[in-house]
Amino acid sequence: MPSGPGDLSYQKLLKDSQWWPADRLLAHQIQALSSLVAHSHRTVPFHRRRVDAIGIELGRSLDLDGWRRLPSLTRRDIQRAGADLLSSRVPVNHGRLISTKTSGSTGTPVTVRGTILDAVVGKAFGLRHYLWHPYDFTAKLAAIRREKGQVYAYPHGASFPRWGDTGTFPFATGPATVLGIGASIAEQAEWLVRQDPDYLLTYPSNLRFLAGHCRERGIALPHLEHVTTIGEVLTAETREECRRALGVPVLDIYSAQEVGTIALQCPTGERYHVQSERILVEVVDERGAPCGPGQTGRVLVTPLYNYAMPLLRYELGDWAELGDACPCGRGLPVLSRVLGRERNGLLVAPTGARYWPAFGSRKLTELAPIVQHQFVQKSLERIEARFVTERPLTTAEERSLRIYIQAALPHRFDVSFAYCDEIPRNASGKFESFVCEVSA
Hints:
alpha/beta; Rossmann fold; GMP Synthetase, Chain A, domain 3; four-stranded mixed β-sheet; 29% helix
């Protein structure tokens, strides 16, 4: 169990563990996983049934072949299981409980329970990204991301004296400024010119259009050193567009709201290192067998320190390609590429302005029993909302949804509803929560 992860002493441990050989790292994971499975069996009814069904022997080091017989956990499983997935006895030293509602980037939002300990450990791995890469912590950081409240709105956004909380950055930093993602691409570019940051953090799909806008209009950011991307798949095309338009590289963080940091880009290249000290990542083929280097498969993750709502073999809905050992010498497993969760374009307003659409998945599930959703821009005037629901919606629920969706858009689009048994992935195996069928 980690000790004192909220301070820099834990970073010293991580500085050593990144160089552990693969067998030592695996032994660490099996020890942590064995404890987590035993706890889950004792205190989580949902997992007790599953563990008993496959005959995992508790009280000893976990056998990985037995572990792989455990069915994967889907978002739909989480929605259906409800309180059966919650531990009845969370260890006292893990601190108070925290709830996280996902934004539903795969169209199926869920609520996940965690603890202070798991959150603080997660912050340590967030800091690892900044320590791996060439950041000047006295410089200015700008972020364009999903934020609630008028304070983040264009034209000013919000300004802060430091980059983040002291749990993430337990030392002094330079200033930060944040703009809500609701600003148009043109407004974002104008705001960045005024802010003149050293670093920028945003979503890959937003960066692709933002960089293209700057290139087409000759907009320069003279002090920008690199861009960090989060929350979505970063494509090679977006990396190249950023280099061409802004003259800087992209550093990517592979993460998910419900499990935190999964993998970080290597300091020496574009591969990803799985953060195996805190999370077990499996890449499996269509039969559920482990993939080898060069193979692409489904991503299953198990956070090792979430004892409040253990997510055993949680299926994110992503696909990834497993890589060989990294030339950098780190023992952390390698993902060559991460696939899935990419947005198909930006919303186009009748004026021609383009926007990163943020419909607020959490609010949708509060207004109606929505299991999965997808929004499709059919024309410059119409948005089709596709829903998988637990039951037929009432007229009042549809009216509330339409009002909410229209209020979240930069233009008063006509909003129509379509109901489905399932919203499929595209031909590339990706799920797209927003699809634009309009040529800009």
